[in-house]
Amino acid sequence: MRPLAPPLVPLLLLAVGCGGGGDAVREPAAVAPAVAEVPARGPVRAFSYETLDGRELSTASLAGRFSVIGFVATYDMASQAEARFLAGLFRDHTPRINAALLVLEASENRPLIEAFVATLKLPYPVALADAPTIAGEGPFAGLHHVPSVVILDPEGREAFRHVGLITQEALEEVLRRLEREGARRGR
């Protein structure tokens, strides 16, 4: 498989607009097409993955802020769009929030993943998922579809989950709502 070429990136918006999603497996959202909130925040999601630059993407490294984690695959055009939407969110809202990408591919795809990150010029941490996470098990049980997004609250509990492509604007709306709810609770 060849690395993504920069001239292909502008075609991304055309492909997304035409319903291009590559080989992504999609499920309907639980609540509405743009929003699928996890009903109860429940326990802290304990996880630790190594980023491409050798750092740690973990519950501890993201603590203290709302954290938006995208789940993607390099072969999926909609995942490319999601990675770009997260880059805009990160650019516009750091240091208020964290953003990160978790690639649901085996470690032998690392050269392709590095090309994906370099081509899209992603400014946030990118990590490779472990085998249980890729299989939809582990700390994000049931989530093995690309693209998908999870938002963790400042304590590391899952506050939002969306399967399928979600825009930067929609994520900003969800974050505002979660922040308002947190302020009402006294956090």
Stretches with pLDDT under 50, minimum 5 residues:
1-39
Total number of beta strands:
7
Overall form: globular
Number of helices: 6
Structural class: alpha/beta
The biggest beta sheet reads: 5 strands, mixed
How is the topology of this model organized?
Layout: H1 11-17, E1 48-50, E2 56-58, H2 59-62, E3 66-72, H3 77-93, E4 97-103, H4 110-120, E5 126-128, H5 131-134, E6 148-152, E7 158-163, H6 168-184
Parallel strand pairs: 3-4, 4-5
Antiparallel strand pairs: 1-2, 3-6, 6-7
Please characterize this protein's 3D structure.
With 187 residues, this protein is of the alpha/beta class. It has six helices and seven strands; from the N terminus they run H-E-E-H-E-H-E-H-E-H-E-E-H. The protein has helices spanning 11-17, 59-62, 77-93, 110-120, 131-134, 168-184, and strands at 48-50, 56-58, 66-72, 97-103, 126-128, 148-152, 158-163. The protein has a five-stranded mixed β-sheet, covered by helices on one side. A two-stranded antiparallel ribbon has the order 1-2. Helix 4 links the parallel strand 4 and strand 5 (126-128). Helix 1 (11-17) crosses helix 3 (77-93). The protein is globular. The N and C termini lie far apart (47 Å).
